[in-house]
Amino acid sequence: MNIKQVSEITKVPASTIRYYEKEHIIPPLERNNVGVRNFDEHLIRRINFAKTMRAAGMEIAALKKYIYLFDKVPNSQNEQLELLKQQRTIMTNKRDDIQIAINHLNYKIEHFADHMMTSEHELSELKQQRKKD
């Protein structure tokens, strides 16, 4: 498969795939006789993994470290597991922060009319006070 096909399959822009190659998130790709990159299913899985982790907020440095350990360091399973656990903690904290914000928005939406009426009343009083001054 070429980069355009892989981009369509993974929904990852070709520029991002090239960046992943440059940053060694995916290994250097074999090219055919005219220089077109050749992708296989393994690389598609790697791109999808990177896409998922990045969407969840994993930083490039952490992703690169995990990939490096996975690809290059024999018997690094404990380090890989520890890095994944650290990332899970970071992502869980982010999720919790987002949930707090969603809960706050839900409250504001559910009580929007109350807030608007109070705010409009306060603004009206301010306008009247300014007119008197």
Automatic annotation (TrEMBL):
<feature type="domain" description="HTH merR-type">
    <location>
        <begin position="1"/>
        <end position="69"/>
    </location>
</feature>
<keyword id="KW-0238">DNA-binding</keyword>
<dbReference type="InterPro" id="IPR009061">
    <property type="entry name" value="DNA-bd_dom_put_sf"/>
</dbReference>
<keyword id="KW-0614">Plasmid</keyword>
<protein>
    <submittedName>
        <fullName>MerR family transcriptional regulator</fullName>
    </submittedName>
</protein>
<dbReference type="Pfam" id="PF13411">
    <property type="entry name" value="MerR_1"/>
</dbReference>
<dbReference type="GO" id="GO:0003700">
    <property type="term" value="F:DNA-binding transcription factor activity"/>
</dbReference>
<dbReference type="InterPro" id="IPR047057">
    <property type="entry name" value="MerR_fam"/>
</dbReference>
<dbReference type="GO" id="GO:0003677">
    <property type="term" value="F:DNA binding"/>
</dbReference>
<dbReference type="InterPro" id="IPR000551">
    <property type="entry name" value="MerR-type_HTH_dom"/>
</dbReference>
